Amino acid sequence: MTAPGKWVIAPPRKTLVVGVADMVVSNDSSAELVTYSLGSCLGIAIYDPVKKAGGLLHLMLPESRIDPNKASTCPFMFVDTGVPKLFQGVYNLGADRHRLIVKVAGGSQLLDDKNIFNIGERNYIAFSNLLARNGYTIHAKDVGGVSSRTLRMDLANGSITIKPPGTNTYLL
Questions:
Q1: Following DSSP, what letter does each residue of 37-67 receive, concatenated?
Q2: For labelling, which of 4, 63, 153, 165 has a CA lying 20 to 30 Å from the CA of 36?
Q3: Coil, strand or helix at 169
Q4: Residue 4 has what DSSP assignment?
Q5: Could you tell me the domains of the chain?
Q6: Residue 20's Cα: distance from chain center in Å?
Q7: In what order do the strands lie in the sheet with 170-171?
């Protein structure tokens, strides 16, 4: 117990960085997951509020069939191979599919002024179709546009914050 008028300094939070074509799952409620520079890539965050278990995936491309060898060595690069691994990772921590909260950010239209490749849009469509086929709902999204984003997930409560360059942070 702290005496009246005394300050308690909380220990610093752990930050678990999720790189490009990478994934982290955790049930450490003292940690936050963060991924940077979501341009056309998607940052997919899932969270079970009862187990306080969550995961974050930073994927790059919609379909692994463009490079099956790469998909076998780096499954988190693709929607169709990375997303199932994200869900399985959180289930392995005791999460229940009926409690999962799914949020997604990214999918911007960067460096493709003529909309030739539409990677961001294709990533989001592949992701949303995969979830729909498997009976999941996207609870919140911040996709599209022309800027990158940083996504942070607080494992204590599942809150997601988004920070585009040059603007304020906001909740998703």
A1: EESSSEEEEEEETTTTEEEEEEE-BS-GGG-
A2: 63
A3: coil
A4: T
A5: 14-171 (3.30.1330.200)
A6: 11
A7: 14-17, 31-38, 149-154, 160-163, 170-171
